[in-house]
Amino acid sequence: MKQLTPERLLDVAYDEALRGLAEGGIPIGAALFDTGGTLLGRGRNRRVQSGDPSMHAETDAFRAAGRRRDYRGTIMVTTLSPCWYCSGLVRQFGIGAVVVGESQTFSGGHKWLAGHGVAVTVLEDRRCIDLMSRFIAEHPALWHEDIGSADDLEA
Amino acid sequence: MKQLTPERLLDVAYDEALRGLAEGGIPIGAALFDTGGTLLGRGRNRRVQSGDPSMHAETDAFRAAGRRRDYRGTIMVTTLSPCWYCSGLVRQFGIGAVVVGESQTFSGGHKWLAGHGVAVTVLEDRRCIDLMSRFIAEHPALWHEDIGSADDLEA
Question: Backbone dihedral region of A19: left (phi > 0), alpha (psi from -120 to 50 degrees) or beta?
Fold first, then answer.
């Protein structure tokens, strides 16, 4: 039996990011697991594909997992440091752990979550860094739209 | 011409809350306006109606407003103090102002937002307080599910 490691969980989120890229979307993926490694839901950023600014990868994975009463025994895995919106999701619903693919191209609320008792693992995975670096370089306006950084749009 | 007041903006969010209640849902409504009072999007909690735990009222109103590049000149109006998830949405996208119907039955991140430069107005509107008070008393498990308070479920 294969060992349950953060890196193996990240593979699922990374696959979602690649699917998003192939669709012409912003390549950020996420997945929600239970602590036994069972996949509860997976998703990706759908701003471009669905014209839906509320569907960040973590939110899409959370939605895919359906209604649940208790998230303490769940792990949110995301290719990129969760923004404040997605960090708020993790905090409000008491998701117990977060695995972050990388926090080099964008740093959201993962340290804030760690300070509120969430078990946070940051992998600084090379594939994730390269994927987002390329995307941001090629599509800066779309990226800034996705994180609400209007100041950068005007630069 | 009618004056643009927080109370008038709240009427739209309250109407959404009543629609949600009539649908058998959690009665929380929200609306996004520009500073001139133009309605950009309105929505309500859809956990019950759509089986979608990611559709809090503020998120639904944000989604209904579609893709935008700059939220600084927008006002999010909600019948209830925004939870961490919805507060994170406001912070990440730089929504400039928040009007809160009430913070008596639940207090989320509205003070945190005020500390991060968001113009927050709390009305403590009697209709909103009564609506949520009744709902929580009648549907405590559903309410606790919606805010991720698993501890309360076990009590």
Answer: alpha
Q: How far is A113 from chain B (nearest CA, A)?
A: 11
What pairing do the DSSP bridges indicate for beta strands A74-78 and A97-100?
parallel
Q: Do A54 and B54 touch (CB under 8 A)?
A: yes
Q: Where are the alpha helices (DSSP H) in chain B?
A: 6-22, 47-50, 57-64, 84-92, 110-115, 126-138, 140-146, 150-154
Instruction: Give the CA distances from residue B7 to residues A24, B11, B58, B100, in Å, rounded to whole numbers and listed in that order.
Output: 42, 6, 17, 10
First and final CA of chain A: distance in angstroms? 52
pTM flag (> 0.90):
yes
ipTM for the complex shown: 0.95
Selected residues 74-113 of chain A with any CB under 8 Å from a CB in chain B: 83-89, 91-94, 108-109
- List the one residue out of B2, B3, B6, B24 whose CA is nearest residue B78: B6
Contact status of B69 with chain A (Cβ, < 8 Å): yes
B6-60, pLDDT tens digit by residue? 999 999 999 999 999 999 999 999 999 999 999 999 999 999 999 999 999 999 9
SS3 A28: coil
Question: Which residues in chain A come in under a pLDDT of 70?
Answer: 1-2, 151-155
